[in-house]
Design a protein that fits this description.
Blueprint (H helix, E strand, L loop, with lengths): L17 H20 L4 E6 L4 E10 L2 E6 L16 E6 L3 E6 L3
Length: 103
């Protein structure tokens, strides 16, 4: 989606150089290919910032990995079911490590 305000002046404050752009696209495309091969598999994902998530890869599209993670415990007196699962979108070029978890 693109939004443009015709009455405002524009001043670019950052633009990736051509080499960086090509490198980021190459990394994103490679990770996308790897994730597509491992849909419905349980993985551990580590981001560049050191955050770690575990879950099942449910989808990968347009530079985003969708990871299904178990939700929080159900309130007392209720049973936990699939409705408590959380789908976490992760940007592919921010991923540092994806580890396949063998069960």
């Amino acid at each position: 989606m693109s939004m443009h305000s015709p009455n405002l002046q524009e001043h670019t404050i950052y633009q990736a150089n051509t080499n960086m752009k090509q490198s980021m696209k190459s990394v994103r495309d490679h990770i996308h290919h790897v994730c597509k091969q491992h849909v419905n598999r349980y993985v551990r994902v580590e981001t560049l910032d050191g955050d770690v998530f575990e879950g099942v890869i449910v989808h990968c599209d347009k530079g985003v990995l969708y990871l299904k993670m178990p939700g929080h415990a159900a309130p007392r007196g209720f049973t936990q079911n699939f409705h408590n699962d959380v789908i976490l979108p992760l940007v592919l070029y921010e991923l540092l490590v994806i580890t396949l978890m063998l069960i």
